Amino acid sequence: MRQEKAVPTEGIYIFKSCQISAEYPGVESSTLYAFDKLGVKYFNDPMQCCCSGMGYYSDLFSYLTVVGLAARNCALAVRSNHPNIAVFCSTCYAVNKKCTEILRENRAVYDRVNEILAGIGLHYGNELDVRAHHFSTVEILWKLRKAIRELAVVDLGGLTVAAHPACHYCKVFYEDVLTDPAFPTIQDEIAEELGARSIRRFQEKLLTCGAGFRQRFTNKAVSLAITNAKLAELQKAGVEVLLHMCPNCHVQYDRYQPLLSQAVRITYTMVHLHIQQLVALALGAHPYNVVGLQTHSVPVEPLLRKLGIEVPKEELTCKSSS
Amino acid sequence: MSAGDQTSFLTEILEDMRFTSHVRGLPNCNQCGSCTSVCPAARFSGERYNPRLIVKRVLEEDRSVIQDPVIWECFYCYSCHMRCPQQVSPCTLIQVLRELAILGRHADGQMAGFLDYAECFWEFAIGSTPNQFFADVADEWGPRWRQMRREMDGIREGLGLMAAIPPDEAIDQCQHIMRETGFLERLEILRDAHRRKQRGEL
Is any Cβ of chain A less than 8 angstroms from the Cβ of B134? Predict the structure, then answer.
């Protein structure tokens, strides 16, 4: 448990995610909305490229390729004077941290990567004063949770939530997890600050979402059995919102929930939001134009009504109809 | 990594860059089974998948483990990695074993379906759902999702976000890195595996 982990709110380099871009772009806009409201200065660099983690964990890339791509992004962040890389996706988080660990410890890889980067006019620095550091955007919001409460215009009182702690946030670099890695409460604590009741401890809390990278496609029965186990437990517990901090998990629960409801004959009613989206809603963000709820599979409109947030009819008709 | 018989299997594996300082415990595995006890793939497959036994086989120098389809059942969730008292990280080991299987051409059947992801990454420096699985996904995720995918560019624009695909200059830089780190050789294996599958050889 390392509550003392230093989380920066300056020099932030936004690290975009392929899955968020393709599935839930509202997570990105919600985070930037919250950062703007909170006065967090950041640089959103069009030159940043994908971490390649989805491909790596589908066994498509050698690790040298992954390290090379990570080193390039780090070099861009440092060059822009924004060395604090803030990621949306937990796969990006762990992949990048692993790459910097390798670059620190393995001189041969460090030299080879810099030889390659020299070909595109970049350099990866290992020295502490020029090294890039990786954080989750959720960690930044956790640090600023009191300020979020001060700025909130929507009260989440009466809302029951639970959090799915992304495996690649809490299990890969478990010593670097804010709150307790055995029962992470980073999302719970933000939601509680906004008035929600969070079920902090439940039996399946640390169970993976079931996506398993390639397993979602090649081992579907086991994959969906895993996904269903957490949904079944949380449905019984009366959870209304399951909070996420990784798009892979968000896809797995949100996209497959309607299918699983039919398959197991349980009407799953919880909606799935990244914690950044819940924060943006509480701060008054537009449900479609900022939070991007029209890209969700499980309709979020009943939740909006419960929270007293107006559901803009025209957007509902043109963007959220099924 | 070569598959020469001169070097022990364990030594060869431990030379991989992924075995960094906090996951160097593989030789010290005491077969306690903590990994299997927390493994979702073990729990939901009736222990068809058992990370403790995979570690055991590696420690016993059993190179045939890379040809065993069971290594393809790990979810890479790192539960074993977090719980192991000896810093063994079976999850990291599986990543290395799968790579040996791919390079030794024991895994063409596992890789053929993922070619499109790799092709997309080479072309655009960003991943996407492999086309080979797209039809399944589109069916399961339903018409609402299909409509959303069609409208995604407009949705992103409405949210004030920049294009998902990076500019050409960034793609060129990524291709330089991929070329220099052996990605094109890996891509050739994937293409060949895909061709073999199309010919019905897999």
Answer: no
From chain A, the residues in CB contact with B166 under 8 A are: 46-49
- How far, in Å, CA of A205 to CA of A162, rounded? 9
* CB contact set of A189 (below 8 Å; sequence gap of 6+): A142, A145, A179, A198
According to the model, what pLDDT value does residue B5 have?
Answer: 53
Mean pLDDT of B96-124: 96
Residue B122, chain A, CB below 8 Å: the answer is: no
pLDDT of residue A230: 98
Q: How far is CA A159 from the centre of its chain?
A: 21
Give the chain A residue nearest B157 (alpha carbons).
A289
Q: Which residues of chain A neighbour B160 with C-beta distances below 8 Å?
A: 29
Q: What gap in Å lies between CA B17 and CA A124, rounded to an integer?
A: 17
- Condensed to tens digits (0 to 9), the pLDDT of residues A235-267 reads 999 999 999 999 999 999 999 999 999 999 999
pTM (global) more than 0.90 = yes
Residue of chain B whose alpha carbon sits nearest to that of A122 = B173
Q: Which residue of A has its CA nearest to B94?
A: A59
The residue among A49, A109, A112, A252 with the most chain B CBs within 10 A of its CB, best to mutate, is A49
Longest CA pairwise span in chain A (Å) = 59
Min Cα separation B62/chain A (Å): 22
DSSP B166: P
Confidence (pLDDT) at B6: 65
Contact (Cβ atoms closer than 8 angstroms) between residue A285 and residue A38: no
Joined together, the tokens standing for residue A208 give 């993976």
Q: What token pair was written down for A299?
A: 């309709």
CB A45 within 8 A of CB B164: no
Contacts of B15 in chain A (CB under 8 A): none
Q: Which two tokens stand for residue A259?
A: 């299918």
Average pLDDT over residues B45-54: 94
Q: A133-136 and A271-274 as β-strands: parallel, antiparallel, unpaired?
A: unpaired
Element (H, E) at A196: none
Whether B52 and B36 have beta carbons less than 8 Å apart is answered as yes
Residue of A nearest to B179 (CA): A65
Tell me which amino acid residue A117 is. L
Q: What is the mean pLDDT of residues A135-151?
A: 98
